[in-house]
UniProtKB/TrEMBL annotation:
One of its GO terms (biological process) is lipid A biosynthetic process. This is Metallophosphoesterase. Gene3D superfamilies: 3.60.21.10. Coiled coil: none annotated. CDD domains: MPP_YkuE_C (cd07385). It comes from Methylorubrum extorquens (Methylobacterium dichloromethanicum). The keyword Membrane applies. GO terms for cellular component: membrane. GO terms for molecular function: metal ion binding; UDP-2,3-diacylglucosamine hydrolase activity. The chain crosses the membrane at residues 25-44, 60-82. It comes from the Bacteria.
């Protein structure tokens, strides 16, 4: 069913774009076959590795598949819009406007161009984004504290060791106090990704590198990956917290497992356990891969929640659907009660749909500031 759903846009393109073109049947048949092959990218990924989440092809082929798949997706959307306009025109006196072949050529060229831009935006090392967050009762020792959020790295054939090394170099150059990674670090087994994640060993921050699992960690040898992350020098916050200190001042950094964890027989997402015995009065920064449980975190007194998972919605228009699946949260900062929720667009994204048109990838540096108290007369 999964592969059939992704094949529907291709069938629509074949019927409504390719079919009416004045080409020889043999040529149209060859192009149709190529389109069908491209549309089944996820089937070939599953056959290559046993999982649609880990295509084990050469990087250039993964990029080519994403470009072709994206072009089909965009072309289907464009043709659907044109078909709706054509249908509506039939209701207008003197309407029923024909759709010339030149329009089909033009939309195909535009779809291919936009898809190329979308893939380029997806696979680049992301630019830096600075975000200032005001926190009530932030201790003076943490006023101006900086932390870097990485999320949804999806280290894979598409985001290999060379890409990871560049991300690490840019992260270390920022000289932040803390680095946090909010899940979905990998796509693939430990055996296939060991070399690609190795550069993460070099991440450096004064208060360390801390991470939580995302939903993709549960697709691939969860226990082995958690152990390996620790061996790389990254501390795992799975339903627990740590206390960061500057002299007598304290800041709580808490992390939870993914909301999907219990479906894999692993410890369920447990915010209460993560906050148990945290110092009273110390502001809490929570790492939670998915943003949709933010209201509960706000009720528990969390000051700042950092999430990912949505990839920012990836494409303008598609982001609205992604938001609906994530409690209305998709990209950027939200005020949830007295808490700030930040939903990161992602350092990278799933190599099965590596397209970005609108929401950019980001290396996100946060600066914490004490919220000014309102004056009373």
């Amino acid at each position: 069913m999964f592969h059939l759903i992704f094949g529907l846009p291709c069938l629509y393109v074949i019927a409504r774009v390719l079919g009416p073109l004045p080409w020889p049947f043999a040529l149209k048949a060859c192009v149709a076959v190529l389109l069908l092959v491209a549309s089944q990218y996820h089937l070939w990924s599953r056959l290559s590795s046993g999982s649609v989440f880990s295509p084990e092809f050469p990087r250039a082929l993964v990029i080519l598949f994403n470009w072709a798949f994206g072009a089909i997706f965009l072309l289907a959307a464009m043709q659907l819009a044109l078909d709706v306009v054509t249908l509506v025109s039939k209701l207008v006196p003197g309407g029923g406007w024909p759709l010339p072949a030149t329009w089909r050529y033009a939309e195909a060229a535009l779809a291919m161009l936009l898809s190329a831009v979308a893939v380029q935006q997806a696979v680049r090392v992301p630019p830096l984004k600075d975000v200032t967050v005001e926190i009530e009762n932030l201790p003076a020792g943490f006023d101006g504290y900086t932390l870097l959020q990485l999320t949804d790295l999806h280290i894979s054939r598409l985001f290999p060791a060379s890409w990871t090394r560049e991300v690490v170099a840019q992260s270390n150059a920022l000289g932040v106090d803390l680095i946090v990674i909010t899940g979905d670090l990998i796509d693939g087994s430990l055996a296939t990704r060991r070399a690609d994640v190795e550069p993460l060993r070099d991440l450096r921050a004064a208060d360390g590198v801390w991470l939580i699992p995302g939903n993709h960690e549960y697709f691939f040898e969860y226990t082995a990956w958690m152990r390996h992350y620790a061996e790389l020098g990254m501390a795992v916050l799975a339903n627990r917290h740590t206390v960061l200190r500057r002299g007598d001042d304290a800041l709580v950094l808490a992390g939870v497992t993914d909301l999907s964890a219990s479906h894999s027989g692993q410890p369920a997402h447990d915010l209460d356990a993560a906050l148990a015995d945290a110092p009273v009065g110390a502001p809490i920064v929570l790492l939670d891969h998915q943003p949709r449980d933010a209201a509960r975190a706000a009720m528990k007194g969390v000051a700042l929640q950092l999430s990912g998972h949505t990839h920012g919605g990836m494409i303008v228009g598609l982001d609205r659907l992604v938001a609906r699946a994530n409690g209305g949260f998709v990209s950027g900062a939200y005020a949830v009660g007295g808490m700030t929720l930040y939903v990161n667009n992602g350092t990278a994204l799933w190599p099965g749909f590596a397209l970005r048109l609108g929401p950019p990838s980001e290396l996100t540096r946060f600066t914490l500031r004490a919220r000014a108290r309102p004056r009373t007369n």
